[in-house]
Amino acid sequence: MNPKISDSIPQEDKDFDKQHIWHPYSSMSKPLPCYHVKSASGVRLYLDSGQSLIDGMSSWWCAIHGYNHQELNDALVKQVNLMSHVMFGGITHDPAIQLCRHLVELTNPKLECVFLCDSGSVSVEVALKQAIQYWDSKRQPEKKKFLSIKRGYHGDTFGAMFVSDPENSMHSIYTSYGPDNIFAEAPQIGFDDEWNEADIEDFKRKIEKHHKIIAAVILEPILQGAGGMRMYNPQYLKRVRELCDKYDVLLVLDEIATGFGRTGKLFAQEHANICPDIMCVGKAITGGYLTLAAVISTRSVANVISGGRTGCFMHGPTFMGNPAACAVSVKNLEILRTGAWKSQVDTIEKILLKKFKPLMESGHRKIRQIRVLGAVGVIEMKNPIDVALYQRRFVELGVWVRPFGKLLYIMPPYIISEDDLNHLVYSLISVATDESLA
Ligand code: PMP
């Protein structure tokens, strides 16, 4: 179903956007070009110019089943007609119960207690607060720092920024405001490369030295996203779990980007066969329909917090458990649970590897490395790129790819057809190797 574009956006509205509306990581005085999307369906975004683009981004990891999905639309409309929102304090409802049941069933059996919240960053705040409250309840309030790894990214809110890589230019302005958390060197050994214990040495040293003041380790399992789209060795994650157990430190895994199948496992932690104490999920949880996230912890974490000096966990967002978001999330997870995602993601991975192989083997003077894991393909350039210029070239080729830093990368909806994926990869390769682009 391709929606018809009946009219384009008036110039005055485009000017208003430039003059009055912040976009992510944008400037009000020198706004980058913005493309005006009128509608989206399947894997296509329809621009007001009449052009359609194959979406390579899933709206930043979210739209795993594509846009304008009839079952998701119907689930949302049905719920809105019943009850679009109601407070969650002292009240519960079917969509929240069904969603939490799916989350408990889909995740590791040890993860039992769900806290619903509004966005990925907020779920990270909640996880950090749970870790601090856990140790406070155990009468070890000195355990309130976090150990993380460089190149990590956990969101843009205050707590989340201070467990993200302090050298990342996204947050460096703010680092002087925050707690002095501890950072180990980022893992260097790739997903498929041979493991060497040296990779975990710095982490080992830091946890050994500081464990008495560390509440939790927090990291993105297997794939570091905004810090460079880097895939690391599952052995690293295995060792992290062992060291957390050895030194009595909680492990928080941020599966906000990697969750719900993206890396070829339902959750990326499954590559290492480990379970965290607390886990954050978001993004694909509603298939990109509405904003929602969740924090899922072990019963033991929940019990300790509940037995502490406040007797409850100290967090309660207004839009907690929003029924419309929960209902569309339930349908999204039902679609996921039919199992088709596995062969979709495996097929995407196979095609990405096949199409990238010649360039991986021959190399290119502008390209540093090409990486693939599940439904994620990354070309890392040697030099930073002109985002607006590259973006324009992608749009001319009929694809939506949003480069950043030195990275050209895709994580398409799982439902993408082989033809569309071929065109997406062709576009990525031709832009990356275009000698006329700086
Ligand atoms: N953690 C990770 C790993 C992320 O990729 C993101 C979003 N890019 C976040 C946290 C923050 O999520 P949100 O943007 O929904 O606040």
From TrEMBL:
Gene3D superfamilies: Aspartate Aminotransferase, domain 1, Type I PLP-dependent aspartate aminotransferase-like (Major domain). One of its GO terms (molecular function) is adenosylmethionine-8-amino-7-oxononanoate transaminase activity. The keyword Transmembrane does not apply. It comes from the Eukaryota. Pathway: Cofactor biosynthesis; biotin biosynthesis. Pfam families: Aminotran_3. The keyword Protease does not apply. Its cofactor is pyridoxal 5'-phosphate. CDD domains: OAT_like (cd00610). GO terms for biological process: biotin biosynthetic process. Keywords: Aminotransferase, Biotin biosynthesis, Pyridoxal phosphate, S-adenosyl-L-methionine, Transferase. HAMAP family: BioA (MF_00834). Belongs to the class-III pyridoxal-phosphate-dependent aminotransferase family. NCBIfam families: bioA (TIGR00508), PRK05964.1 (NF004624), PRK07986.1 (NF005940). This is Uncharacterized protein.
